[in-house]
Amino acid sequence: MLNINFVPDDYIQDSESRRTNIMYLVLFALVMAGLAVAFATIKISQHTVAVKERMINERLAKANEAIQQFEQLQKKRNEMMKTALTTAGLFEPVQRSVLLASITNNLPAGASLLKLEINQEELKNTSQSRSQPGRKTKYQQAKNDADEPQELSPEKLLETKINIEGMASSDLQVAAFIENLGNSALFENVALVESKEEKDTDESKYRRFRLSAALKKEVHLSADDIEYIREKGQKSTYKM
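^ that's the sequence the OP posted. Answer follows.
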């Protein structure tokens, strides 16, 4: 039996073309939607990265500023230290290393140093006489003006005081140490502040002492004297 199709071929072709076009349009819409989503995701990621980059740049700028401030403070500190060392070198009549070497030289055999403090203080008599001159006659004032210098240098207004702490086996060694310092050309007013007996970990007894002294005024050492004191101090240190 023959199948007779009454639908025209043109109609069938048009229907298939419409379905194909609709399918293409749907696929195109899906592709465009995917591209739009991808574009939006990329933009959001770029914005997030830009925000993080800006925050990192701000932190780096603050860190660089802090580093520059720290370097400036370090530079100022170094300059102040140089100035302080230079000033101390000008005001100190005898270098501290020379004082330490001289004190080590005068240590008796068996004694040792535990602590050494060197302080410079303004002369009290000078400061009081400046602040409170008192009433004087014209003759006394003229005599004092002739005897005393008009201006004292800063180093002459300073007094170097020394506090020494050490240990010895007996009071005889402490007394010998005091005598040696008193006979030294550098020190004066050597006095015993404290001397007490203590025990070591192995129950052996020793004397722990503290002394006070002052550097003599108008002390002037030659280069040979300083070199001799330092060499002798090193030898004394090695023997201890």
